[in-house]
Amino acid sequence: MPYCHNCGLEVEQEERFCAKCGSPQEIVILQKQQREVPRSRKSSALLLSLLLIITLIFGSIAAFFVLSDNSYIIYDLFKASDEQITFEQNSVFEEDLSLIPDNNRYENNAPEGEEKSFNGSFEQVRRGNTIGNIVNIGIAAQKENLIFHRGNLNGGGIYKTNILNGEHLLITSDDAWNINVCDAWVYYSNRAENWNVFKIRYDGSERTQINRDDSGNLQLVGHWLYYRNDDDNANIYKIRTDGSERTQINNDQSYFINVIDKWIYFQNRSDGGKIYRISLDGHEQKQINDDDSWNINVVDDWIFYSTPDEGWNICKISLDGTERIVINQDDSGNINVAGDFIYYRNDDDNGRLYRIRTDGTEKLRINNDQSYYFSILDEWIYYQNRSDDRRIYRIRTDGSERQQIIK
């Protein structure tokens, strides 16, 4: 079995990210395979021949358009390929309403097309999933009585489950991660298509591609989708939900993105994994701490994370970086902060699911499964059960009513 190139954890061959530290695995394997394939003289000659043919074809086309005084068409074609990709032209948006609460909640129960009032620090919220769920690769999200979640095993698609009657409906067979739901749409990264972003209606209709970037940490905030672009050195990008206004925000290798208020908090691997924050327009940036910080969750006035500098213990630090507290003594992965509790995988106890209060008290083991990728919806925890061939289970936050989602 292969090991994570960054932290040394055993990872499945098909895993894209290390569940402990979040390091990309697929890219490393691909690069290794590319190095192992020798280039023969025959292959090189064939490639040169193809390039020559392509050059002649494009040269002929260009000459034709120049002679026809239509060269501007070629210019537009090449310009379009170099600009952002827009798949829908009908949507008109008002001013961005991405006022984000300074905690780990999301609201999306407003009538379609309207914003939902929130009784926290800011007036309006429009978010597709919680920070903690997205940091855990977003295997589930909720809209009122509907749960949208991955199916079992690889390429499991997205199921819509009605929690009132237990009915399941497969709405897409796409290999979906980073699930966000809002305004009758489900947004997700499609692993089967290079992790590009797609959206689809709740009933499975109108499947629409939004970008062509390898998109991680996808999160819907306001009318924007924020993500890590692994086709561009893991820089942070944003794009409108209609596929327009694709914008690069920074030039740092950015992981565990948290969009909170008017800031984006992230692990900066261009600077030793320290926590940084940057304004939504990319103009202001600030370093928060000096730890190598993973699984970042920004909640209220604190940033929660695990760090190899403390044996992967969970720490929290104030938003201004002045106060730092160690919360537990466990080897902790897949952190998800919800309410007053931190949920995490305890690798000192065979990957079982634990919780602990944000003040470090009331530590509790929740299950006996090797548990990965937690999504917390109301009083339920959805997770991938490595003790049962990576099937999707759920369990109540107090450890009761453990269930397999789809038999």
Global mean pLDDT: 81
Task: Tally the structural domains.
Answer: 2
* Proportion of residues in helical segments: 10-25%
Number of discrete helical segments: 4
CATH class of the largest domain: Mainly Beta
Low-confidence stretches: 27-45, 64-123
Rg calculated over all Cα atoms: 23 Å
Overall, the morphology is globular
Number of strands: 30
Describe the fold and architecture.
- This protein has helices spanning 26-36, 41-67, 71-82, 131-135, and strands at residues 116-117, 124-125, 140-143, 146-150, 158-162, 168-172, 176-182, 185-190, 196-201, 208-209, 215-221, 224-229, 235-240, 247-248, 254-260, 263-268, 274-279, 285-287, 294-299, 302-307, 313-318, 324-326, 332-338, 341-346, 352-357, 364-365, 371-377, 380-385, 391-396, 403-404.
- The chain is mostly beta strands and 407 residues long.
- The protein folds into two domains: 41-82; 116-404, TolB, C-terminal domain (Neuraminidase).
- A four-stranded antiparallel sheet has the order 3-4-5-6, with no helix packed on it.
- Residues 27-45 and 64-123 have low confidence and may be disordered.
Indicate the topology.
Elements: H1 26-36, H2 41-67, H3 71-82, E1 116-117, E2 124-125, H4 131-135, E3 140-143, E4 146-150, E5 158-162, E6 168-172, E7 176-182, E8 185-190, E9 196-201, E10 208-209, E11 215-221, E12 224-229, E13 235-240, E14 247-248, E15 254-260, E16 263-268, E17 274-279, E18 285-287, E19 294-299, E20 302-307, E21 313-318, E22 324-326, E23 332-338, E24 341-346, E25 352-357, E26 364-365, E27 371-377, E28 380-385, E29 391-396, E30 403-404
Antiparallel strand pairs: 1-2, 3-4, 4-5, 5-6, 7-8, 8-9, 9-10, 11-12, 12-13, 13-14, 15-16, 16-17, 17-18, 19-20, 20-21, 21-22, 23-24, 24-25, 25-26, 27-28, 28-29, 29-30
Helix pairs in contact: 2-3
